[in-house]
Write a structure and sequence with these properties.
Helix 2 (44-59) runs antiparallel to helix 3 (63-90) and helix 3 runs antiparallel to helix 4 (94-115). With 144 residues, the chain is an all-alpha fold. The protein has five helices and no strands. The radius of gyration is 21 Å and the shape is extended.
């Protein structure tokens, strides 16, 4: 009897899960379904939310700073997405795109520096370096 009840519960659970996953997909994001960070699953809004939350914890952002930084980051993701699409459509190499992305990041840093106080900016730079280290990127080599 217990075994039958258990099997029924498993089947009902599986049915509920499959119904939820097969629902309305009309809100799909252009980067994937947002279910993770793997290929095709990139959700830029979730990434911005996570970065803002991390920055707020470490830098104690004001509401005004948070709003401005959110705009900067969203603009940056749009620019990066446009560059990726351009590279895929044109068949251009990764090195050309890398240089353009470095320029976009420099522009983002310039805007961030305008929003943050001097102390916050210094801490932000430390956060960025830690993030690069976690991803296994020691940063970009100096440009000569």
């Amino acid at each position: 009897m217990k075994r039958t009840v258990f099997l029924v519960m498993v089947l009902v659970s599986a049915l509920v899960i499959s119904c939820n996953n097969g629902g309305n997909n009309s809100q799909r994001l252009p980067f994937g379904n947002g279910g993770g960070m793997g290929p095709g699953n990139f959700d830029p809004q979730a990434m911005v939310d996570r970065q803002i939350e991390e920055m707020d914890e470490n830098l104690d952002l004001s509401d005004d700073q948070e709003e401005k930084i959110r705009e900067i980051m969203e603009e940056n993701f749009e620019n990066m997405a446009a560059m990726r699409e351009e590279m895929q459509n044109s068949g251009a190499g990764f090195e050309g795109m890398r240089e353009k992305m470095q320029e976009v990041r420099k522009e983002q840093d310039k805007k961030m520096k305008e929003v943050l106080s001097e102390q916050q900016w210094e801490q932000y730079q430390v956060m960025q370096e830690e993030r690069r280290q976690r991803r296994g990127q020691g940063g970009f080599p100096p440009q000569n």
